Amino acid sequence: MGENVNTVEATGFTEEQEALVVKSWNAMKKNSAELSLKFFAKILEIAPAAKQLFSFLRDSDVPLEQNPKLKPHAMSVFLMTCESAVQLRKAGKVTVRESNLKKLGATHFKSGVKEEHFQVTKLALLETIKEAVPDMWSPAMKNAWEEAHDQLANAIIAEMKPSS
Predict the structure, then answer these.
(1) Could you report the per-residue pLDDT of 18-72, keeping only the tens digit for each?
(2) What's the sign of the alpha-carbon dihedral 20, 24, 27, 32?
(3) Integer Cα distance of 98 and 107 in angstroms
(4) Which residues, 6 or more positions from 80, have their beta carbon under 8 angstroms from its beta carbon?
(5) Quick one: CA dihedral 32, 33, 37, 43, positive or negative?
(6) Whether the predicted model's global pTM rises above the 0.85 cut
């Protein structure tokens, strides 16, 4: 029974994984505004306490979909995650500008984000993609997006320290 398990190369992102990520991202791109809000709603559904990590949500009583700062933030996070995934194999590494990576790391650190919080974002991302492209979804696609997410998360985590 254990023979069917797909293993992800520790060295990186395969051509097959890249093809699955690119194909699904191309299908999702036109709905990225709506999907990014769904992604954030899922994060908060999985971990309601995560609301405290976002300055614009912390003391807000406004419903999520009406929060003026949530949409641009959700869009930038979702787009960065997906675009980074698409570029991963071509670049051989996470392609967020180095200065942005340092800034992302410092911001996450300052906000109190912990390494385990990235498991929540991964789960929310996978659920969002699965719902967005149900006809394409497969264990292989899930693995591809997990690998892409983990590489981006690890790059951010490596920079999660006080800003100098």
Answers:
(1) 899 999 999 999 999 899 999 989 999 999 988 888 888 888 888 877 888 888 8
(2) negative
(3) 14
(4) 96, 152
(5) positive
(6) no
